[in-house]
Every structure is written in structure tokens, then in C-alpha cells.
Design brief:
By secondary structure, this protein is α+β, with helices and mostly antiparallel strands. It has three domains: about 15-165 and about 180-215, no CATH class; about 255-370, no CATH class; about 375-470, Immunoglobulin-like. About 40% of the residues lie in helices and about 10% in strands. It has 15 helices and eleven strands. It has a four-stranded mixed beta sheet with strand order 1-2-4-3, with helices on both faces. A four-stranded antiparallel beta sheet has the order 5-6-9-8, with no helix packed on it. A hairpin with a 4-residue loop joins strand 8 (about 425-430) and strand 9. Helix 1 (about 35-45) runs antiparallel to helix 4 (about 90-100), helix 10 (about 260-275) crosses helix 11 and helix 11 (about 280-300) crosses helix 13 (about 320-335). It is globular. The protein starts with 15 loop residues before the first strand and ends with a strand.
Length: about 475
């Protein structure tokens, strides 16, 4: 194993070293990291929406109350400018967090460049920002805030470890073969809401550290974080661990992925919605997501539930996910020829080469099998003279939806104040229609969106997202 030139003695989390001679650890220990909380809070105060999800309301209220006097601090003002002018947000913030030492030093662990910690920062900006960040840490007495919430952090760590215990870590060595030489960190981002990030730190000697920074989007009645496996945490854990194998394998054989660029060009709009800004990121994410599906298949997951996982990834824009999963299943049957995952990358490269001329057709075929809204009553969509006395809106689809899958409706452009649905929707005629109970007022604009998150056909194809907008007399 390559040794670090740095001894991260202040690193507030457990190092997980995987070598070729040992299987991944059975119970890696997650911890809350002070740098992650510090950076997320500074950018929360700067107004970044991804750090203002308020998924832990009590914790969010404590943040806002404690740091209210520092909203105009120079570090916050610069963070706001960096977001507005250079797009410093999402993973760029977390990349900075793992690239600096623990407080109060907060100094670079590696040489910063135009691409490190992230190209959105830039060397000049980081040189100006870090002194301001140190000032914020000192001026706000951040250490006191962190210490005051230590019990909450310990609760999160203990509860996450329980969910983590459901993971079959032996699967990784069985599926991938030789493990890469790296160090892996599992961090709980308490202010990150539903945001999960996978930054990495490469030292000057080539030693690599991978981080999974996992948010929290559920809590108990006391406001403390919970991590129930059926709320997506288990799949997220499995997803993030896959990155430690997939990323280096793709990086090492990237020249074989000649078809990736045209595939990305065809789905760029979908990928950018998930902050996947280039072809290599798309390939890594598609392989990681396919590996998650294979993991659950190998674990004996019900075929219908596994199919829903495939359909969800297709809804996300990975229209070829079913074929890619089949490709990975072929790899599992050809281990004599491909003993480790990295040796199979040229075959995956050929998969993308063959896909590239047909990706538009694949996407069109998926859309054709999906459901679409074809009618609405008692008035048409975009009507400007709807009767305020109407109590139900009936939506008609071109294919029946599965009533057992539930429904998913989000606010429209007007937000909650212009959301008319009150009560539980119901399906009619075997899922060909959904009836929405509404409460309307005169001379009022309304809007809402039927989404693909729950609205699906019996064979798992989604409803194409549909926005309803209208105004009453």
C-alpha cells in the first residue's frame, strides 16, 4: 500500500484502507466532520439552496439562531460572490472541505491549482477565502457550536452504523476482484439535506483518499437524524462505496470510451440536472448505478423491485441502464477471462461505442413506453376562466398507471401559495385517470406538476412530467 506523506492526525473520521490482500472492512465507522459542517454552514448563510434544505428542522433552526450575527461576515459575503459569479456550490463546497486541515488551521493539505480543490474555485479565490474562513471559525466561536451538538452527532453516527451493518461488504471483493489501494472516509453531512457527495483528495505522492459525504433527510419526533434503510440510505451507501472501485477503473481505461462523448451530448440536459457536467462523470455514474442494481440482484431482491430500480435510472436519463446491467451480469459470468473489474473496462468502452449511434432511438423507445397526460377536465390546461366552485380535477393518461405505486405531485412555479390540491388523489378505471381534490378561490392562479417519482405504469415505465397551470374567474 502506498503510504501517505501526510499524517492526518486531526482528521475527525476513520481511515478505511483496502488493499489487494484484504476484503473491505465489515463495519466502517462513520463520523461527523467539523470541516464539512463549517463549509456547509458558511454557504448556507450565503444562500446556497442545496445547503438550505432544512431536512433536520431543529438542527437548521439552531444554525440560523446561533450564526445570525455573522450573516454579513466577510467569509459569507465572499461565499455568496463565489456562488453567484463562479458557480461554487454543491460538490465544489465539499471538495474544499476535504482539501483543508481541521480547524483552526484550515490550511491546504495539497497544493491548490486551477483544478484543485475544484475548477470553480481557482487559486486566487482560495488564497483570499481561506483566511476569511479562519476568521469566521474564530469570530463565530464555531468550536462551541460544534461541541454543543456533539450528542446529536453521536446519535447520528450510531444510527447510521446500524444501517451500515446491513451492507454485505464482502460483495465488493467478490464483484470487483482486487481492491484499489486507497483510503476511504465515510462522513455524515448534517446540514446537507438530501445532498450526497463523493470528492477525492490526491496527494503529491499519488496516494488517494475517497470521501462519501452522505446527507440526512429523515428524523424522529425529537428532531434527531434517522437513517432507515428503506428511505434510500442503504442504496446510497452501496452507491458511494462503488465509486471507490469504478472511478479508478474508468480513469485508467478512459481512452477506450470513444463513444462516451456522443452519448453524453444526447442526454446532456438530463445529466446537467444532476450536476453531471461531462462524459466521464456520466460513465462513472452509470456504472455505479448499474452496480447497485446488480448488488441487489445478487442479494436476491424481488425482481419487480429490482426492475423499478432500472426504470428509475432510465427516468434519470440513463436510458440504456437495462442493457448496462446485463453487461455487468455478463462480467460476473466471465471472471476467468476478466478476474478484476478494471480488466473489463475495454468491453464497457465497446458498449458505449455501440450505443452512441443509437442512443436517440433508445431514448425515444423509452419515452414511447412511458405514460403521458392526454386529457384534463372539467377545463383544459392553461385555462384562464376556470370556475372557482370546482372541487375535483380529472387527469387522463394514454396508458394505465399502477395505483399501488402511489402518486407524486410537486408545487408549480407559484409555490405552496398557488398549489390547489387538498386531500388524497384517487385512481379510476384501472389507473387510466387520477382524480385530484382541489380548493379554489376566485381570480387566483394555480399550478402544480405531476412527476415521475411515483406515477408509473404496471411495468415500471414513468409518467412524463406534466405541468398544470390555470387561473379561476
Amino acid at each position: 500500500m502506498v503510504k501517505h506523506r501526510f499524517v492526518l492526525s486531526l482528521l475527525a473520521l476513520t481511515n478505511i484502507a483496502w488493499s489487494s490482500a484484504q476484503a473491505p472492512p465489515i463495519t466502517p465507522h462513520p463520523q461527523v466532520d467539523q470541516r464539512v459542517e463549517l463549509l456547509s454552514i458558511v454557504f448556507r448563510l450565503a444562500g446556497n439552496p442545496e445547503y438550505n434544505m432544512d431536512s433536520l428542522p431543529a438542527y437548521s433552526a439552531d444554525i440560523d439562531r446561533y450564526f445570525a450575527p455573522y450573516k454579513s461576515h466577510a467569509a459569507v459575503q465572499m461565499a455568496q460572490s463565489l456562488r453567484n459569479k463562479k458557480g461554487v456550490s454543491f460538490d465544489a463546497v465539499m471538495s474544499m472541505a476535504i482539501s483543508i486541515s481541521q480547524p483552526p488551521e484550515l490550511k491546504p493539505l495539497v497544493a491548490f491549482t486551477g483544478a484543485v480543490p475544484d475548477q470553480r474555485w481557482g487559486v486566487a479565490a482560495t488564497e483570499k477565502f481561506l483566511p476569511l474562513l479562519r476568521d469566521f471559525y474564530r469570530d463565530s466561536k464555531f468550536a462551541d457550536f460544534f461541541a454543543a451538538h456533539r450528542a446529536t452527532y453521536r446519535t447520528a453516527e450510531a444510527r447510521f452504523a446500524t444501517t451500515l451493518g446491513s451492507v454485505d461488504f464482502g460483495w465488493y471483493s467478490r464483484f470487483y476482484g482486487k481492491a484499489p489501494d486507497l483510503v476511504y472516509h465515510l462522513v455524515l453531512g448534517m446540514n446537507n439535506g438530501g445532498g450526497n457527495y463523493g470528492p477525492r483528495l490526491i496527494h503529491d505522492d499519488g496516494a488517494m483518499e475517497l470521501f462519501s459525504i452522505i446527507g440526512c433527510w429523515t428524523h424522529d419526533d425529537a428532531g434527531d437524524p434517522t437513517y432507515p434503510p428503506d428511505q434510500g440510505y442503504l442504496a446510497t451507501i452501496i452507491h458511494e462505496f462503488n465509486h471507490s472501485f469504478v472511478n479508478p477503473a474508468v480513469d485508467a481505461r478512459w481512452k477506450t470510451f470513444t463513444g462516451a462523448e456522443p452519448v453524453y451530448a444526447s442526454v446532456a440536459d438530463k445529466m446537467k440536472l444532476m450536476a453531471y457536467g461531462n462524459a466521464k462523470t456520466m460513465v462513472k455514474e452509470s456504472l455505479v448505478r448499474a452496480a447497485v442494481i446488480v448488488y441487489f440482484q445478487d442479494a436476491g431482491e424481488d425482481s419487480q423491485k429490482n426492475l423499478r430500480r432500472i426504470r428509475q435510472e432510465q427516468r434519470n436519463g440513463f436510458y440504456w441502464m437495462d442493457a448496462l446491467v446485463d453487461k455487468l451480469k455478463q462480467y460476473e459470468t466471465q471472471r476467468a477471462q476478466y478476474p478484476v473489474f478494471s480488466s473489463y473496462m475495454p468491453q464497457v468502452g465497446l458498449f458505449y461505442r455501440d450505443l452512441s449511434p443509437h442512443v436517440t432511438e433508445v431514448a425515444a423507445a423509452f419515452d414511447a413506453k412511458s405514460a403521458h397526460v392526454v386529457g384534463m377536465e372539467p377545463f383544459a390546461n392553461h385555462a384562464q376562466d376556470a370556475e372557482a366552485s370546482i372541487q375535483t380535477i380529472r387527469i387522463t393518461f394514454d396508458k394505465p398507471l399502477d395505483p399501488n405505486a402511489g402518486y407524486s405531485i410537486s408545487f408549480g412555479n407559484g409555490g405552496s401559495e398557488h398549489y390547489p390540491i387538498k386531500g388524497k388523489p384517487s385512481f379510476e378505471d384501472g389507473g387510466m385517470h387520477v382524480v385530484l381534490p382541489v380548493e379554489l378561490k376566485p381570480n387566483q392562479a394555480y399550478s402544480f406538476v405531476l412527476t415521475s417519482q411515483a406515477f408509473v405504469t404496471p411495468d415500471g415505465f414513468p409518467l412524463a412530467s406534466y405541468t398544470v397551470e390555470f387561473k379561476t374567474k
